[in-house]
## 1
Amino acid sequence: MESFKEKLRLVVNKIRRAPLIDEKTLNEILRDIQRALLYADVSVDIVLKITENIKKRVREEKLPPGFSKRELLLKIVYEELINMLGGEAKYKPLIRKGRTHTILLMGIEGSGKTTTAAKLAYFYKKRGFKVGLVCADNYRPGAFSQLRQLGEQIGVEVYGEENGDSIDIAVNGINFFKKKKCDLIIIDTAGRHKDEKNLMDEMSKLISAIKPDETVLVLDATIGRQAEKQAEAFNEVAKVGSIIITKLDGAARGGGALAAVAKTGARISFIGVGEKVDELEIFDPPSFVNRLLGFGDVKAIVDRFRAYEELDKKRLYAISRGDFTLLDLLDQLMALRKMGPLRKLVELLPGGYNLPADFEKMGEENIKKWIAIMQSMTKRELLNPEIINRERMLRIARGSGTTVRDVKALLKSYKMAKSYMKKLSKQRFKKIPYYGR
Ligand SMILES: Nc1nc2c(ncn2[C@@H]2O[C@H](COP(=O)(O)OP(=O)(O)OP(=O)(O)O)[C@@H](O)[C@H]2O)c(=O)[nH]1
Ligand SMILES: [Mg+2]
């Protein structure tokens, strides 16, 4: 994954440094993205689709006031990468206390099933669940002792039998742990290949015999885009509930495996990121993409876009016409604080106003104070500031840790801004009918 990450970060830097995002620069950037994705073994059709989407969205999406085209492009790249990995939603573990949940692990040889069984057991044990491990692999000598060793390491009991039929062992193991009132039973199976008909038949028999709550396919990230074929083949014999991708640490083709799996619509629940028992993570596409692109600034840009999308445009319009109460002001200030610099308030108003100097000068400190003051007002006061007499001012000042002077100053600024905007919008609307004639 390291080089994939490096290549994507170079793209992010290029976007950030480009003097202008014009057609030529955009095409160059899209080519770099294609190269990075192809390098990670993402299939050509996915690569073309993602870059087409980016191009189309950059052309079509409106640039909100106060944002640059560069920021819009970064946000789109971020969102398209998340879509490629299956969307925003994070996997939610289905296990509940007081009911035995069974998970069956399957996959080809060496994909990491046994290690993952132990990792999962450890994951749930740490969260307070009682877990049991069953070794239903009677093909590979040493499979039982491998799991037993892992079980000892994490303090989880392991059920297995030296000889016998894998289906019988699985059934016995489940009964064994059900008696012990385990919340979760994890069944490790023998590795099998999609072309080994006997083993695949056995898998479907095993599934009918034990009817697991969840059938998990374990895939090794190093197979890249071939993950799609494997996921489909396993899905034919056993309905795959979710997929765990292992060995993402160090797998250059990991991006390809993740994209290929997401394309099948299957759910990626966890990812394995190392050999140790605690190196398992819930798969969360947004945080995964954040890490790929470099934490911090792309995420911060996207958060600002989201905050803008949350703003109430109708109310902003009303505010721009001087039609607002203190409650509007409070709500909008709170929403805007998420967006960064506060002069953005002005930039966001439809029409792009220039506010009086002292209104513009209000710094972060003042805004914090204002919010505190308004939060100490009752709803009635926020809606009818004229009722705020000296007695009320005293109460508000005390409640917000400010002074009566601060409260007065806020009320004065509010009145000034309101009448100023009313005046301005009247002038503007007088002029507007002449435009376009
Ligand atoms: N780096 C890394 N290695 C892993 C990860 N998961 C498993 N491995 C290693 O992959 C190898 C195979 O793991 P196993 O868990 O034995 O695989 P398996 O699917 O049970 O293998 P069979 O039972 O033989 O089919 C071991 O050396 C593990 O340490 C991972 O997330 N990262
Ligand atoms: Mg194994």
Note: The pocket of guanosine-5'-triphosphate (ligand 1) is lined by residues 107, 109-115, 137, 140, 143, 191, 246-247, 249, 272-275, 279 (CB under 6 Å).
## 2
Amino acid sequence: MLTINTFTPLTPLHHPLFEEAKVKVWMKRDDLTHPEIQGNKWRKLRPHLDLLKQKEYHGIVTFGGAYSNHIAATAAAGHHFGFPTIGYIRGDELAQRPEKWSHTLQQAQAHGMQLKFIDRQTYRQRHDESFLKKLQQQHPHWLILPEGGSNPLAVTGMTEVMTQLEEQCLDWTHLYTAVGTGASFAGLIRANEANKAHAEKSTNPPEISQNPQSCCQIHGIAVLNEAEYLLPQIENWIGQPTKQTTWQLHTNGACGGYGKTTAELLETQQRFEQAFQIPLDPIYTAKMVHAFLQHLKAQQIPANSRVILYHSGGLQGRRKTHALITE
Ligand SMILES: Cc1ncc(COP(=O)(O)O)c(C=O)c1O
């Protein structure tokens, strides 16, 4: 029987560094939703699964690279929930070389995903309207999900995380999350804005609020270089004007770019894992933790802050660590 732990724990992290800085830190363990359908991947997929349940679609067609967490999670969801999946994978050179396939691809295939390898030039068209129209004609009645599973419906899936956090730690002040496409970050911001609006409406007079939300900040750590280009899309996904003080996209935490690492980042990951016995992935969550620690060191987080680090899963990506070190 498939069990998804939709309500994940908020684990306190105790460390002399945090005590010294007089901050309290927790990790939201969304990596514990399911061993294969983890974290933001589960949250972003979940609203789409409702559509499949209602038989609106036959299965899911989606895109990704050879190490994509989204490909891994979609294939696993198809396997466990019983719907077919097709993955368009970047790199046609892999088509005839299964011995070169990553663990992600091997596992996706084992879960019944039909893998279709496409050359890099064609892959670049994945957002083009005409390309998607043709693809839909090839796969009528299939739900086409963009790379990373990121679309407006996926954004709404993150509301569940914020609802849980409001229950688990009402007075948090800082929330850190890794940013790839920005959909998860936008979803958290959107849900936070909705909570604030609700709290303001239901509190009379408005200044007596249970939750001093005015100081809540959501920090997105971009894991790819020059990520400023994500901002219009993120704002679009948030879907309403927000105060610039309530969230920030950090574009200097990518440690060399997407899928890249540094000795310092690897050391941070190792130390964190040793100290807290919580595994991180090298592509997303390690960079998020690294950026938080740097902000703490630079005294950018005031005393008495209550910080939540969002563990967005992606642990299947740990198998890439070796490749990263030897690249
Ligand atoms: C483990 C993990 N964390 C964070 C992200 C970033 O999510 P998003 O693309 O919604 O910004 C991803 C990629 O989707 C991911 O796989």
Note: The mean pLDDT is 92.
## 3
Amino acid sequence: MNNYDVVIVGGGFAGLSAALVLGRSRRRVLVSDTGKTRNAVAHESHGFFTRDGATPAELVRIGREQLRPYETVELCSVGVKAAKAQSKGFEIKLDDETRIACRKLLLASGVVDEMPEIEGFKELWGKSIFNCPYCHGWEVRDQPLALFGGIELAELLKGWSDDLVLCTDGATLSEDESRLLSKNNIAIREERIVRVEEKNGQLENIVFANGETLARKAIFIRPKQQQHSALAKQLGCEFSDSGTVKVDDFGQTSVPGVYAGGDMIHPMQAISFAVSRGALAAVGINRALLQEDFR
Ligand SMILES: Cc1cc2nc3c(=O)[nH]c(=O)nc-3n(C[C@H](O)[C@H](O)[C@H](O)COP(=O)(O)OP(=O)(O)OC[C@H]3O[C@@H](n4cnc5c(N)ncnc54)[C@H](O)[C@@H]3O)c2cc1C
């Protein structure tokens, strides 16, 4: 059975960042990645220092390329199916049934967004339907925007446009919420939404159940999320009420030797945060390995 210091589950932004730190720390590392980075659907990625406007695929390509000099780091496109704690470390089973062993395990498998059941929605996700104004607000600044969310999202989006309509898709807002939105010149549409229409791959209209349409350039939404992989649950890691994996400052979960980083550990999600959380977990892991060997 192949033996590694660390197996990293997920080679997105957190996983690749951790692999770089661990490779440079002379650790034998396997990065397993099924290649479904969360923002892969977006044309461009924004807000990541020195790489504003790069495509998500380009960022991943550079990240992988820069691991090449570190010959102790292996990349593998077969996913991790299961992991089991052993007396010293973990036994890992890959999707092709290969078994490997490692001393520490880093989960960097990200989250998946749940799309509402609205016709045309999935196709526009990452093109003109977005979750984060910090990532995509600038490109649609001062444009007519819709938001599928609450007061918090409305308050945030005011920083990018004054032409905002909050769509509740059938839900009713409280009087206080309606008053606050009206005070800020934010219109409300409480009708059910049946579909979104596009032209040349960009949002054109939101269509309501009563047949009326609302012309908008983009929609911002806070979708529900799930963990991309069931491994954290399978291993018995503790979760927060919001569904993220609980970790300490260096990514250690509630299960000894299992670390986690990236979107899966925090609701504040962006490439810069994922990269930082991956690097911190790598330092935590390397420190733990050094201590084990030294004492
Ligand atoms: C539409 C959209 C646009 C966005 N745009 C931006 C932007 O412009 N700028 C920005 O900073 N942020 C943006 N984000 C947020 C950004 O995508 C995330 O913060 C970032 O991808 C998190 O990195 P991560 O490494 O935690 O997870 P991910 O990048 O999602 O990587 C997780 C990886 O783990 C793999 N994986 C999962 N399970 C397994 C398994 N069992 N075995 C092996 N591999 C597995 C997945 O296939 C994936 O490759 C956007 C998000 C969305 C949804």
Note: The domain at 2-112+224-294 is CATH 3.50.50.60 (FAD/NAD(P)-binding domain).
## 4
Amino acid sequence: MPVERRPLRERIAAELDELRRQQLFRTLDLPSGVALSSNDYLGLASDPRLVAETIRAIRESGKVGSTGSRLLAGNSKDWERAEEEFAAFAGTESALYFSSGYAANVGMLSVLAGPADVVFSDSLNHASLIDGIRLSGARKVIYPHGDLSRLEEAFSAHRRETGARLIVTESLFSMEGDFAPLGDLLALARKYGAELVVDEAHAVGVFGPGGRGLVFEAGIAGEALAVVHTCGKALASAGAFVCASREVKQYLVNRARTFIFSTAAPPYLAQQIRAALALVPAMEAERAHLHAIASALREGLRAEGFSVGTSASQIVPLVAGTSAAAMAWAESLREDGFAVRAIRPPTVPEGTARLRLSLTATLGREEIERLLGACVRARGRTEKALSARSPI
Ligand SMILES: Cc1ncc(COP(=O)(O)O)c(C=O)c1O
């Protein structure tokens, strides 16, 4: 009997239709209006000093392609210097650059843990951390977001397993805008003989002395097994450094497939990152302004009865509930001149579709005031539109 096989193209079309039906269909749009989805937290992406340094680096390097993997032709003094300087910035013995934060997390976690090990992962960890853990083949134990007592229970439940144990967490959570209890996590790691891995993607440049991040601020940079700092957000570039001991770096150079089997980034990018690193520690005024407008926005939204969850940073989630409501709020804000996108499941848990308001130091106080008014209008317009559609 011939096997009935559904054509692949038919399945693709059906899945896309289903996404449209569930209001989960995504499109690539060009942002316009006041940027509220940008991770350029310090406004460095268009800083004339950084632009000038990058142009100078391209002119002087005489070679705009790296020509190969770092293990073949692609290594350069520029990358070696960038890694040395980044390790000094992050307070670790050494650092290894990957071409994206996603590649760093997947490449690192897939080899730091193995099938005999247990990885304890915060429930709100980023997709790149989740995918790295999955690829490692380790047993994954998800603990409720930031819940130390549930994490401790999980350690007890898995006390008989003999493999290594790893706690994996973001330091500043990308969707909630709240912080991991890093000191407590390290204490638990010590108590149960585990290692700690931290992703500083949204904290680097913004928190800690000179923007060195929350791990540095907590004084535990030398104790975590690895700390990931991405360069595509406050550092206005691309890629990420895994900051760790010399031995962990050597291990990743020998084992991490996203490092080994990938062309090195061009050398001028190393110069751009070094230039950003030279500017970031002194950007105290930008950091202070960013924290002040973020706090004004959180307070203003709470006073208007919105839920901003546990946010305590420049990332302010405006929880709408259903995907339809989040889409309608985003549409209304766009009409009022704000570039914002709805974040829907599966990126966030079901029923917590939201707008992720991500502030940058280039926003002024008057824009925050206007934004508050636009949020109130968005809620009102959506309630009206949804109740007009309801049968009662
Ligand atoms: C917490 C976190 N880790 C890692 C990444 C991935 O970094 P990249 O964008 O450099 O691939 C992101 C990106 O959005 C992130 O939010």
Note: The longest helix spans residues 365-389.
